[in-house]
Design a protein that fits this description.
By secondary structure, the chain is of the alpha/beta class. It is 47% helix and 11% strand. Strands 1-2-3-4-6-5 form a six-stranded mixed β-sheet, sandwiched between helices. The protein is globular, with a radius of gyration of 21 Å.
Length: 314
Amino acid sequence: MRFINPKIRFAFTKIFGSAQNTDILISFLNAILYEGQPIIERLEIIDPYVVLKIVGAKDSYLDVIAKLNNGTSVIIEIQVLYVETLAKLVLYNSAKTYGTQLMRGELYKGFQPVISLMIAEFEMFDNCQDVTYRFIFQEKTHLFDYPYNQIELVFVELPKFKKELEPLENIKDKWIYFLKHCGILEEIPAKMSEIPQIRRAFEMANEVNLTSEESDTLQKQEFFVQDMQSLVEEAREEGREEARQEGRQEGRQEGQVGLIMRLLSRRLGQINPDIESRIRQLPIDKLENLAEAMLDFSDAEDLTAWLEANSPKD
């Protein structure tokens, strides 16, 4: 038996974003957000493209959005590649989801809480070895909560989860174990199968249940992630070496440009020399934004449109 890797975006959405299997997502969110307590009784899975589409605003993508029975929106993203703008992107998506709740003319009292759940295949917070982190608005000196604390950021760092199968006791640990290890298991562990929703998640993740089109989509995403990971590490090492040799900002920028050009070539094919010249003129912060934005490019026109909106003005 082979299972798809839930750390790949397509697989995660298939397992947790199915409107026909909301019990899986309810169990998962109760485990991660509420320590296994049955706080969420029901939810509705929302199309993320509909919720986050604002005229004039930057497009962004989330893997799953759910509206809970108490009105709270939970936005979920699985991320396997670290980009320097990630922390800003989490804030942006949270604020945009919160702000799109009201239509023009409606009262502000209609706002409902938003929880942003980021599942990361890397470490974001190196000052602590916890697996999960929760951030809310607090007064800086005395640390009391903001009166209307309606946006919460939750992070799960999978590399910091070190527990093996046998010691797992609570449902939160079992769900995190599922995320981390499902893609390399060959059967459903008996300890995990005791929980009906986790057993159903394994059944959803069984490769034999994929259509040929779904299998092709998953494989393309897996290959792209692998390429990205190897190229990112290669470019980072090149950038570090150039920075060591030159001792100035140009080393870092040249490494970033080299990485982006290789990734764009992999994704879009041969890049026009004029386009490459425009990319090389971008400042370092814009290069970081481009590294993130290219994940959603479908063709060279998307790249050209992005450059039109982000290139330095004469």
